[in-house]
Amino acid sequence: MVEASVGFQCPECVAEGNRRVRSARTTFGGRIVQKPYVTWTILALMAVGFLAQLGTSDPVGQAGRSPLVVEFGMHGFAAILQHEWYRLITAAFLHGGVMHLLFNGYAMYLLGQQLERWLGHGRFLALWVAGALAGSVTSALFVPGQLSVGASGAIFALFGAVFVLGRRLRLDMRMILVLLALNLGITFLVPGISWTAHIGGLVAGLALGAVFAYLPTRKGREDRRTLTHGLLVAAFVALLFVLLFLAPRLWFAVLPV
User: For the chain, how far is it from start to end, CA to CA, in angstroms?
Assistant: First the structure.
């Protein structure tokens, strides 16, 4: 062990970590990222959003009762019928309480840093946004009258992506599977949790993880990057199509006139 600027480091562990980052760069065609700025920025925005909830809540200290939840939380009818599209993403920066924030923040800290180092800043941000949007779109599709907050859709997307990418790198993913199974169990067993956001985010993470992990590389890195960008655009267009065309048709078919 050698002394480092913060605590101690194991040279062999550091070398192994660097080897895995280089392996990920070769496999996924990205750039080596040493500092996960996107992860830190999102965590900071989540904290700012929660502090704003506390500052505007009545009584003070009950973040879930803040008017920000009503104005910026995810609500399918408001998002589509009233054209308040910002709800699809702003809801991810609001939380129902301290434990809700701490759980999502801790998962973001652990999974986000690793994924950002594997994928690079841009693709990681696209993954996070796609997960948050997929969770919101799924909620709008199946529970349009439900008001929900939290970054859980994005977090489940990270779970799905890290599982697929880790398997591609031949890493042991059993712990991720255990954590994912536990969280899915909590999703359906504990009342008051938005299962739609979790499932929507997970599906998006698995799909985009497969795109990043198994995209062919024979034609070179630039062609791979172009194809990746094209598939990301297609994914966002698909979410928009579901939101604008499928959701209203499903509502009119199910809800009483």
Answer: 70
Domain ranges of the chain: 30-249
CA 127 to chain centre: 7
Contact 156, 108 (CB under 8 A): no
Q: Which class would CATH give 30-249? A: mainly alpha
User: Which residue is associated with the tokens 């966002």?
Assistant: 236
Closest by alpha carbon to 162, among 196, 129, 118? Answer: 118
User: Among this protein's residues, is 23 annotated catalytic?
Assistant: no
pLDDT tens-digit map of 215-254: 765 555 555 566 666 666 666 666 666 666 655 555 554 4
Burial class (CB in 10 A: 0-12, 13-18, 19+), 108: buried
Q: Catalytic residue, from 75, 95, 100, 198: name it.
A: 198
2: enclosing H helix or E strand: strand 2-3
**Which of 91-95, 165-169, 235-239 ranks highest by mean pLDDT?**
91-95
Overall average pLDDT of the 198-223 stretch: 79
| Catalytic residue, candidates 95, 152, 194, 229 | 152
- Looking up tokens 């003070």 gives 60
